[in-house]
Design brief:
199 residues, alpha/beta, 8 strands, 19% strand
Length: 199
């Protein structure tokens, strides 16, 4: 059996939106959209692969694969040539999992609950970057994490855009919405241009 060349724009995934404005809708993406999302995030948030002199980074697969944010973790791993951390991470297992990875995607409540246990210096900890989303991020929380050497990032994503559309350090400055609007306007214009060109 012969196979044709890999087609980066061929439909590859089917993911449901959150349904926040009505019934969930199915969104189809090709590899190009997922890889572009990974490349855009890694351009700002350091995530290095096997060729990095300081060692390979590892992102915890902490989100379900039926959600676009979970899929995005897999695509970042593939794009960077890094490692994917597949460990039990629900409930009391989260602290143990976080000590084995350099990167994680969490909601603020999760990092709030685990910070006291992560301060325990009896076990080595590799966690260096946390991508936060899904709720308001208290500045005091990110300051506590930063004091421990954990860089906190604020992300906003959409299923329609194959995940993250805006990203910044969670530093308490109120500029996420402005950046998000700029990115979203650019994405909408790109989609409209693509539709016009394809006709």
């Amino acid at each position: 059996m012969q196979y044709g060349a890999w087609q980066i724009d061929r439909p590859l995934t089917l993911t449901l939106t959150s349904g926040s404005t009505g019934a969930p809708k199915a969104v189809v993406h090709g590899a190009r959209q997922h890889l572009a999302s990974a490349a855009g995030l890694i351009k700002r948030l350091p995530f290095t692969g096997v060729h990095a002199p300081q060692g390979t980074d590892r992102w915890l697969l902490s989100l379900p694969l039926y959600h676009v944010s979970g899929l995005a973790i897999v695509w970042r791993w593939l794009f960077a040539g890094a490692e994917l951390g597949i460990y039990p991470c629900r409930g009391e297992h989260l602290v143990s999992a976080l000590k084995r990875v350099t990167h994680a995607s969490l909601v603020p409540t999760q990092i709030y609950r685990v910070l006291p246990e992560l301060k325990d210096n009896t076990e080595p900890r590799r966690l260096a970057h946390v991508l936060l989303g899904g709720a308001a991020i208290p500045t005091a929380l990110t300051q506590d994490a930063e004091a421990m050497g954990i860089a906190c990032w604020c992300g906003y994503g959409m299923t329609e855009t194959a995940s993250t559309v805006t990203l910044k350090r969670a530093d308490g400055l109120d500029d996420v919405a402005r950046r998000c609007l700029i990115v979203m306007y650019g994405y909408v214009m790109m989609v409209r241009l693509f539709i016009v060109v394809k006709r």
